[in-house]
Amino acid sequence: MCVYTFIENHDWNGKTVIPFITHEGSGMGGTDRKVLELRNNKKE
User: Fold this and answer.
1) Residue 22 carries which DSSP code?
2) Are 3 and 19 in contact (CB under 8 A)?
3) I need a labelling partner for 8 at 20 to 30 A (CA). Which of 2, 16, 25, 38 fits?
């Protein structure tokens, strides 16, 4: 998914990320878990 690639390729240190959805379809669709996974595997 292009959003995951965007998240993976940017430095988010010191940033606050507030995920949100704009539709009622599939909810977060696993994005909340993916963001946490990327945060936990961040490059130092």
Assistant:
1) S
2) no
3) 25
Length of the chain (residues): 44
Stretch (H or E) spanning 25:
none
Angle, CA of 16, 18 and 14, to the nearest 5°: 10
Q: Are 13 and 42 in contact (CB under 8 A)?
A: yes
Global pTM? Answer: 0.46
Give the list of residues 6+ apart from residue 35 with CB closer than 8 angstroms, or none: 7, 17, 19
| Tens digits of residue pLDDT in 3-39 | 778 878 888 888 887 877 777 676 677 777 877 887 7
